[in-house]
């Protein structure tokens, strides 16, 4: 069995340099952010992870389990600070670069695979995300590993199908937004296997994929049944996320909260936040009208269910408003601002020299616009294959999620990754035209 050392030695020198530089930059980010305090969801993930380490189980179904487990593993090895988790991010994303190159080389050769690997490893925002204890680094890595397993350059075997299903299940238990996409992921198995020719083996692989995904997710659903007293497939935040972008309430931070300054259109940093407590009080009061003990037993699951009902009612009552809000949500998601800039403006990094602050802003903004141009070009010029169709479908699904729920700059990252993979074909297409 090949060792990690042998695998790295098999890579071209240029790719090894890219991976090495990427890892060093990410570790430098880790070293420079040891003083940065955790905020919002970051602190919650650590709280869940430390509860797991102390008790050996999770308390409820508020978050999917994979990322808190990752945090718990890193802290069990390196201590109960954020630094071990950030180092874990650096190692996982670098390993994903190896997977990405090895996978794409089978399709487009060294040059195209090197392009996608460099974009994944050296994009400044991805490097900066190393220090943020959000799910993106682990989630996007799992998605790439899944795609590499389900779309091999060679034949899709039953063993590889099962591996792809496990990876997909783990990705779904990292970000639950992926779970409704499962039927389309099963379609990838059919596309790769040529099921349109009604080959029994292809349908067998598809059934195997669905069974293994279900087997990967089901134990967590059973856990939720025990802890919540009802069936919760993945987590209890779906309704709240849907309600954020579909309510007639005005979120206070949208108008009075902090905003990103220019040079582009100024937008709110927390456009959909600030109404959570009010929503809980309103939903609990509504429930208390029909049950005397509602206030005592009201859980986050109940809040999420109430939020989902209210959001659905809003969409049905005001379909035109729902459709008109969609482009605005996409605008928030694809605005050049990002969470690194938000942390800078809010002072999370402490006292930062002016040149460093401006450098961070222009580096992340300029690189994002450049990458966006590459992604758009890749989508237009990539060959029409089952893999490219799958990548575009994933991107469209993510855009639909933003359109339906709410916009956040983190939510554009899966779309960018799909474009980064497609960019592997740009050098190959250029070579084809040169030969013509």
Tell me the strand percentage band.
under 5%
Query: Given the C-alpha coordinates, what overall shape results?
Result: globular
Return the string of H and E elements: HHHHHHHHHHHHHHHHHHHHH
Number of helices: 21
Helix/strand class: mainly alpha
Helix content, binned percent: over 70%
- The total beta strand count reads 0
> Roughly how many Å is the radius of gyration?
22 Å
Instruction: Give the low-pLDDT segments.
Output: 431-436
- What is the mean pLDDT? 88
Cα end-to-end separation: 42 Å
Biggest sheet statistics: none
Give a brief rundown of this model.
With 436 residues, this protein is an all-alpha fold.
Descriptive account of the structure:
The chain has 436 residues and is mainly alpha-helical. The protein is 71% helix and 0% strand. It has 21 helices and no strands. The protein has helices spanning 4-9, 13-32, 41-55, 66-78, 83-122, 124-128, 136-150, 158-172, 182-193, 200-228, 238-244, 252-256, 276-288, 294-297, 300-317, 319-334, 339-345, 354-381, 386-404, 413-422, 425-435. Helix 9 (182-193) runs antiparallel to helix 10 (200-228). It starts with a helix and ends with a helix.
């Amino acid at each position: 069995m090949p060792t990690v050392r042998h695998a790295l030695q098999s890579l071209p020198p240029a790719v090894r340099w890219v991976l090495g530089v990427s890892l060093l930059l990410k570790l430098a980010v880790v070293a420079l952010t040891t003083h940065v305090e955790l905020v919002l969801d970051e602190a919650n993930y650590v709280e869940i992870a430390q509860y797991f380490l102390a008790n050996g189980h999770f308390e409820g179904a508020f978050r999917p389990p994979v990322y808190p487990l990752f945090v718990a593993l890193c802290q069990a090895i390196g201590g109960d600070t954020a630094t071990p988790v950030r180092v874990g991010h650096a190692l996982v994303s670098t390993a994903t670069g190896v997977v990405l190159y090895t996978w794409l080389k089978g399709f487009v050769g060294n040059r195209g695979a090197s392009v996608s690997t460099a974009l994944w490893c050296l994009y400044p925002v991805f490097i900066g995300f190393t220090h943020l204890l959000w799910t993106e680094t682990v989630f996007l890595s799992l998605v790439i590993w899944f795609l590499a397993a389900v779309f091999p350059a060679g034949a899709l075997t039953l063993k590889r199908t099962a591996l792809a299903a496990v990876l997909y299940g783990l990705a779904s238990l990292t970000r639950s937004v992926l779970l409704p996409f499962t039927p389309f992921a099963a379609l990838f198995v059919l596309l790769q296997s040529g099921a349109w020719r009604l080959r029994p083996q292809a349908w067998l692989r598809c059934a195997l994929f669905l069974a293994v995904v279900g087997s990967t997710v089901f134990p967590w659903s059973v856990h939720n049944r025990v802890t919540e007293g009802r069936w919760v497939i993945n987590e209890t935040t779906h309704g709240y996320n849907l309600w954020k972008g579909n309510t007639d309430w005005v979120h206070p931070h949208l108008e009075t909260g902090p905003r990103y300054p220019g040079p582009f259109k100024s937008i709110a940093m927390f456009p959909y936040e600030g109404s959570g407590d009010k929503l809980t009080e309103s939903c609990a009061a509504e429930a208390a009208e029909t049950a005397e003990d509602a206030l005592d037993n009201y859980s986050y699951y109940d809040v999420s269910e109430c939020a989902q009902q209210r959001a659905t009612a809003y969409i049905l009552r005001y379909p035109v408003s729902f459709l008109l809000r969609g482009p605005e949500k996409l605008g928030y998601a694809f605005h050049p601002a990002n969470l690194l800039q938000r942390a800078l403006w809010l002072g999370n990094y402490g006292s930062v020299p002016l040149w460093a602050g401006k450098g961070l802003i222009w580096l992340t903004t300029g690189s994002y616009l450049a990458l966006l141009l590459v992604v758009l070009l890749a989508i237009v010029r990539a060959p029409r294959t089952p893999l490219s169709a799958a990548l575009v479908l994933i991107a469209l699904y993510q855009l639909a999620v933003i359109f339906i729920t709410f916009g956040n700059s983190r939510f554009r990252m899966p779309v960018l990754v799909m474009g980064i993979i497609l960019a592997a074909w740009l050098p190959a297409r250029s070579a084809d035209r040169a030969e013509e």
